[in-house]
Amino acid sequence: VLVLRRKARRVHEDDEHGDPLDPAQERRVRAVLALGGVPQADLLDGVQQVRLRLLERTANGHEAPRDVSAWAAVVASNLAMDWHRSKRRQERLGERLASLRQPVAHPSGEETSLLSLAVARGLDDLPDPQRQVLVLRFYADLPVRGIAEELGIPEGTVKSRLHTAVRAMRARLHEDEVV
Amino acid sequence: MAAEHDGVDALMAALTDDPLPEEALVDADFMAEHWSAAADVALLREQLGLIGGALAAQERTEARPEPVRRPVRLPVRERPYWRPLRTLALGVAAVTAAGTMVTGSVWLLSQAGNGTADSATSSSGDSAPSYSLDPDSGGSDVGAKDGADTGALSRAGYLACARLVVEGTVTAVDPGPGADQDRITLRVTRYYKPDKGPVEVTFVMDQEVDPRPAVGDHTLIGIPTDAASPDTWTTDEKEIAAERAGITAALPTSRSLTCE
Question: Which of A26, A33, A95, B18 has the most Cβ atoms closer than 10 angstroms to its Cβ?
């Protein structure tokens, strides 16, 4: 434990709380988990898992990731994938979004809420591997090459999954006439 | 068929932000498609940010975790069941939209899936990774290469949820049942899962896969249990060799996993 703690502090020595994830990174991890379909009730565990993996990484003698935010986003996306594999069910983003007391904040109001719901439902219907690369590319803003390297798959695979996913999302949004 | 240049269509260009070929810039149809795609991609990016932000903020006030002063505050024994076991490095590829047409080829694959999966074809296990079903073992990261410890899916987990994993040579590429689809016939040279099956298998793939299958390609493919098309496809010999070793090492463990 002591070793883990000491090395964790080395990751972010400027973090007075000793938390390897800063608040922005934590929000990002929560968002990636949520967009990946991990239920709200499990988000906390998911974030803790990401922290734990970061700490274990340093405890195992590896250097801190060059980009902790990107690394954490990929770990979170993989946690979501494995969560699906184990549970074979997912919390529907569309339903969760619709149940939010505060609508998705955007200046354009109701129309955007409908659009957000349509996007969320589109995400719900994507196969997990496609949803993963879509979230990493367009939420976490990782480049195609970076996604391929982190996931250990060829760039062509990432491109193919992205292409298929976005094509399906576009078709859905145009059919729903929300764009 | 969408306009494309140098094998890149308008949507792909919008997805990757790669520079457009010069000839594409003077192709009005291509550019119109590209602008439309780029606008939709920008909208999608914005919406993911809004949705992710809204969901991440939900219950944050009451659910904010304590800073990790004790990194193992989450005891190993209590690690969630969905903790990834190990990196999936399946060199991969083609994904077809869910709901692909069920064809006779699928029947063939279904028959192949009925083969016994208990007897191993593994011929090498010298690089067997430390897979573990026991979350207490803490061995999930053992041996993970640096840079790949982001916890990708385990090979064993992938294999457990795959109904067909084979190597073979593409012998035919015919028009598929849907637009922009190919029907691929593969002469199998090695079965991984199941351990045996017909000499040839046939399946449908999107034409957008990269690389697009061609007759004579040596390839390794994987098809999930709930899919009619491969989500794994590689023709790179180095990747195939690496995956061959990983798959044969992971097969025994995969048999003790269930894909619910």
Answer: A33
Which of B1, B8, B15, B204 should one mutate to test binding to chain A, selecting the residue with the greatest count of A CBs within 10 A?
B15
Strands B218-224 and B4-5: unpaired
Q: How far is B22 from chain A (nearest CA, A)?
A: 21
Distance CA A137, CA A149 (A): 13
Residue of A nearest to B69 (CA): A18
Q: B118-171: per-residue pLDDT in tens? A: 222 223 232 222 222 223 333 333 233 333 444 334 677 778 888 889 999 999
Q: Indicate the length of chain B as a whole number.
A: 260
In sign, the C-alpha dihedral spanning B186, B189, B192, B193 is positive
Cβ <8 Å between A120 and B89: no
Please write the tens of the pLDDT for every residue from A100-157. 766 566 655 555 578 888 899 899 889 889 999 999 999 999 999 999 988 888 888 8
Report d(CA B248, CA B180) in Å as an integer: 34
- What pTM was computed for the model? 0.53
Instruction: Give the ipTM.
Output: 0.79
B50: which 2 tokens?
Answer: 């809004």
Structural element, H or E, at residue A137: helix A128-138
Closest-CA distance of chain A to residue B8, Å: 11
Which of B18, B17, B9 shows the shortest CA–CA distance to B42?
B17
CB contact (8 A) between residue A164 and residue B95: yes
Rounded Cα–Cα distance for residues B22 and B5 (Å): 9
Read off the pLDDT of each residue in A52-64 and give the average, rounded to a whole number.
Answer: 82
For residue B94, give both structure tokens.
Answer: 């083609």
- Could you check whether the bond before residue A103 is cis, i.e. omega within 30 degrees of 0? no
List CB contacts (< 8 A) between A56 and chain B.
Answer: 141
CA distance A116 to A50: 27
Pairing of strands B8-9, B181-193: unpaired
Token digits of residue A102: 């505060």
User: Between B231 and A164, whose confidence is greater?
Assistant: A164
